[in-house]
Amino acid sequence: MLVIRSEQLKLLGQSTEENFILFIKDFLRQHFEEETNLESDENLILRIKVHMSDARQWGMTSEKDLIDYSSLCILFGDNFCSNPDFPWAIAIVNDPGISSGSGRMLRLMNQAKKTINNE
User: Fold this and answer.
1) What span, in angstroms and rounded, lies between the C-alpha atoms of 4 and 7?
2) Cα within 13 Å of Cα(81), Cβ side
3) CA distances (Å), origin 18, targets 14, 42, 45, 76, 119
4) How far apart are CA 10 and CA 6, in angstroms?
5) Does the reported pTM lie above 0.70?
6) Residue 41 has pLDDT above 60, yes or no
7) In three state form, how does the secondary structure of 56-88 look?
8) CB-based contacts of 62: which residues, under 8 Å, 6+ apart?
9) CA proximity to 73, closest of 108, 21, 101, 39
10) In sequence order, what are the residues at sequence separation of 6 or more whose Cβ sits closer than 8 angstroms to the Cβ of residue 29?
11) C-alpha to C-alpha distance for 96 and 106, rounded to whole angstroms
């Protein structure tokens, strides 16, 4: 019988996480070329890690949520959910009436679209 030690599982999880971060980096480069073209891969990867940490603190854990959150950070700034220039984002992430991270992300995306369309 094959036995996988906890250390091996941890390494496998890190590898998967790193691959996902690289996927997000490539996604952002493809879809936000103008916003990311002057940034080094290393810096963009560091930013993505912060985005993911921030998103997870609000319960956004699905791959789609993490990609969408990083996309919004590229558009509105890394700290847009705590930036007073975006009171709608602060209200959404702190709304106790939204019970899931994906619900928060959906509301953020909908409001972001409205904000972009009004600019």
Assistant:
1) 8
2) 25
3) 6, 12, 9, 24, 35
4) 6
5) yes
6) yes
7) HHCCCCCHHHHHHHHHHHHHHCCCHHHCCCCHH
8) 101, 102
9) 108
10) 36, 37, 44
11) 15
Q: What average pLDDT is seen over the chain?
A: 90
User: In the numeric block, which tokens belong to residue 35?
Assistant: 């916003």
What pLDDT is stored for residue 12 in this prediction?
A: 55
**How many Cβ atoms from other residues are within 10 Å of residue 54's Cβ?**
19
Query: In a 3-state reduction of DSSP, which class is residue 12?
Result: helix
H helices present in the chain, as ranges: 6-31, 33-36, 41-57, 63-76, 87-93, 101-118
CA–CA dist 18, 21 (Å, integer): 5
Angle at 80 between CA 112 and CA 43, to 5 degrees: 110
d(Cα 30, Cα 85) in Å, to the nearest integer? 27
User: Phi, psi (5° rounding) for residue 74?
Assistant: -65, -40
Q: Tell me what pLDDT residue 114 has.
A: 94
Residue 56's contacts (CB-CB under 8 Å, 6 or more residues apart) are 66, 101
Q: Tell me the residue type at 106.
A: L
